[in-house]
């Protein structure tokens, strides 16, 4: 099955991150090429806290919601060094709540 991609307006990323738990977090991955700290985070709760801190003090380059195989993954790229992947189960509600538009 091919993924469906939705554009996420950069101005909504922080708002989405503040309430992401209500969409049923399946997993969180963070890659920070400038730091090894992200590799030491043990739980999704710690990773989410770290991601929110980075969202507050970094420039967001791009954001997408990729839907595939029954889950939606929010992919956020910041300053070409940080990638955040937050996978949620209730991606349909996320799409509705934030009126995300499918990428053509």
Describe the structure.
With 104 residues, the chain is an alpha+beta fold. It has one domain. Helix content is 26%, strand content 37%. The chain has 3 helices and 6 strands; from the N terminus they run βαβαβββαβ. The chain has helices spanning 13-18, 44-57, 91-97, and strands at residues 4-7, 25-32, 60-68, 71-78, 82-88, 101-102. Strands 2-5-4-3-1-6 form a 6-stranded antiparallel beta sheet, covered by helices on one side. 26% of the residues are buried.
First CA to last CA: what distance?
17 Å
Q: What is the radius of gyration computed over CA atoms, rounded to a whole number of angstroms?
A: 13 Å
Choose one word for the global shape: globular
Strand percentage, roughly? Answer: 35-45%
Number of continuous helical runs: 3
Q: Structural class given helices, strands, pairing?
A: alpha+beta
Domains, number: 1
């Amino acid at each position: 099955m091919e993924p469906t991609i939705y554009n996420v307006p950069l101005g909504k990323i922080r708002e989405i991150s503040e309430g992401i738990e209500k969409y049923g977090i399946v997993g969180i991955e963070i890659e920070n090429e400038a730091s090894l700290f992200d590799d030491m985070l043990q739980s999704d709760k710690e990773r989410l806290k770290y991601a929110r801190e980075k969202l507050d003090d970094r420039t967001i380059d791009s954001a997408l919601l990729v839907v595939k195989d029954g889950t939606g993954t929010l992919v956020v790229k910041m300053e070409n060094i940080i990638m955040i992947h937050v996978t949620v189960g209730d991606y349909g509600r996320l799409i509705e709540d934030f009126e995300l538009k499918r990428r053509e």
